[in-house]
Specification:
Layout lengths: L3 E2 L7 E4 L8 E2 L2 E2 L9 E3 L8 E4 L2 E6 L8 E2 L4 E2 L24 E6 L5 E2 L3 E6 L5 H11 L10 E3 L10 H15 L4 E8 L7 H4 L11 E5 L6 H16 L5 E4 L4 E6 L10 H14 L3 E4 L9 H5 L5 H20 L10 H5 L5 H8 L8 E5 L9 E5 L5 H10 L4 E6 L11 E5 L2 H6 L6 E2 L9 H16 L5 H5 L14
Parallel strand pairs: 12-13, 12-14, 14-15, 17-18, 17-21, 18-20, 19-20, 21-22, 22-23
Antiparallel strand pairs: 1-2, 2-5, 3-4, 5-8, 6-7, 7-9, 10-11, 10-16
């Protein structure tokens, strides 16, 4: 394996592919100090204020004199990011050559979508009934039969004591999950006195009947556990006879997310997801890219790929509105990535973002979704949500993603409401946390092409869509997190 990689010909840094020692030669320079794996080494002299270039784009500027062979990181590099900006639409008009759709064994639903799982979900309308939901999920396990795979309670602390758009977002997100095609049946569990009660949620569920949904208001019955179990039995019996049938990849929606990144994420795992995204979109499918703060510094790459000026304007609003959300809460828009990201070699938010946006591949951007809204157009969509892993992944599920791809250089056991495929960026993580990782992009470091890795990931996703369980499902992990933006009463 090579010692380092210069990602783009215009880069004035290289990334160490393994721990390097002072005095070694790498990327045409002699190292002046130790360089940890995933971190950056200067290939040229840099004066204070000069741009540090990686992926062919600036990721910040030097804050001190830097000699070739020096380590570049948070001690001598600073972001160039600023507040809301004015952008000009300079379209690149990307186009992917379409292919014939493939199929996967899925569960067609009455609304024209398809599920990749046939589970029974319990959705509380308010956190006050979380424990009831969990107790019902445990009791219902003995009722499972036929094609029903699990009964899952999705706990959350919201649904009451919220105001305005904050409350609206909770209602829309819960409605998106209630209607999700991975659920063969849903028990909506209310308390009876909350702001987002069952009757309040009904208009958010659409006008069409929902034969897969039952409701229970705990204050209206003498024994909520007995009443809930009876409804769950009914839902399970109804869903048990449904069988997997061939479903077109035109029905497949996959969310794209990364977290706990390292210096390899933008070289291996994220480009592999991007290649996957292109493969799926060519076959009529849909992908959704989110975590808006991790677009800061790379947003023009997405803006220039917007299929129309109207979508470009939506993308500008997506970026600048999220920056205003930061500043209105008295926070900077350029906060450096997490401690784990820094330890793994990510120096600035631009560094993170330029790696992060590679998950979008090369497809045109067809639509921009507000938080808690559902996808409507096939192709590459952008979704408004923060970078937080649980919040962003839940938002992807609520937007309609049946599967979420999650790249990581650090590893995490979490899962969202839908199968969450963990993709490792490096071989150490792949082997050390085999109980977490579903797919490794590390072979890219050994010379395997991104396109080949994307094809392999595409095959993995079709297998998961067809019923192959991911590691977090095997562990019984299912998480839900709502984006809390307003006042709590």
């Amino acid at each position: 394996m090579e010692k380092s990689i210069r990602i783009h010909p215009q880069d004035n840094v290289a990334v160490a592919l393994t721990d390097l020692r002072a005095g070694e030669a790498a990327a045409g320079v002699t190292l002046l100090e130790d360089i940890p794996a995933g971190h950056k080494v200067a290939l040229t002299s840099l004066h204070p204020g000069e741009k540090v270039v990686k992926y062919g784009f600036p990721i910040g500027h030097a804050t001190a004199e830097v000699a070739p062979g020096s380590w570049l990181h948070t001690h001598n590099v600073r972001t160039d990011l600023s507040d809301a900006l004015t952008y000009v639409y300079t379209p690149t008009h990307p186009r992917l050559e379409p292919c014939s759709p493939d199929t996967f064994p899925g569960f067609p639903r009455e609304d024209g979508r398809a599920g990749v799982r046939n589970e029974i979900w319990i959705i509380p309308t308010v956190g006050c009934v979380n424990d009831v939901a969990s107790a019902l999920a445990r009791r219902a396990q003995r009722l499972l039969h036929g094609s029903v795979e699990d009964v899952i309670a999705f706990r959350h602390p919201y649904g009451c004591s919220q105001m305005g758009e904050d409350q609206e977002n909770t209602r829309r997100l819960l409605a998106g999950l209630i209607r999700h095609p991975n659920a063969g049946g849903v028990l909506v569990l209310g308390l009876g006195c909350e702001n987002s009660g069952i009757e309040t949620l009904r208009p958010y569920l659409g006008e069409a009947p929902l034969p897969r949904v039952r409701t229970l208001i705990c204050q209206d019955v003498e024994d909520e556990l007995a009443a809930g179990e009876a409804l769950l039995r009914e839902l399970i019996d109804q869903a048990a006879s449904w069988a997997r049938v061939p479903v077109s990849t035109e029905k497949l929606v996959v969310g794209l997310k990364c977290g706990g990144s390292d210096g390899f994420s933008g070289i291996t795992a994220n480009p592999t997801i991007g290649a996957f995204s292109d493969h799926l979109i060519r076959r009529g499918g849909t992908t959704i890219l989110t975590e808006v703060p991790e677009m800061f510094g790379a947003e023009t790459l997405l803006m220039d790929r917007c299929e129309s000026e109207a979508v470009f304007r939506q993308t500008v609003s997506l970026i600048n509105d999220f920056k205003r959300y930061f500043t209105e809460n008295h926070q900077t828009v350029y906060e450096n990535p997490s401690p784990g990201n820094k330890q793994g070699g990510i120096t600035t938010l631009e560094d993170k973002s330029l790696g992060c946006t590679q998950k979008s591949g090369s497809a045109p951007v067809v639509d921009v979704l507000p938080y808690a809204h559902q996808v409507e157009k096939p192709g590459l969509n952008l979704l408004s949500a923060p970078g937080n892993d649980l919040v962003a992944a839940t938002a992807l599920a609520a937007a309609g993603a049946q599967i979420v791809l999650f790249s990581t250089g650090r590893g995490t056991p979490f899962a969202c409401p839908v199968p969450t495929v963990k993709i490792a960026s490096n071989p150490t993580l792949t082997h050390r946390k085999a109980g977490w990782i579903d797919f490794s992009a590390a072979p890219v470091l050994e010379g395997v092409s991104i396109d080949r890795m994307g094809e392999e990931l595409y095959g993995k996703v079709l297998a998961v869509a067809g019923g192959q369980r991911v590691k977090s499902e095997e562990a019984g992990f299912h998480d839900l997190a709502i984006f809390k933006q307003g006042v709590t009463l």
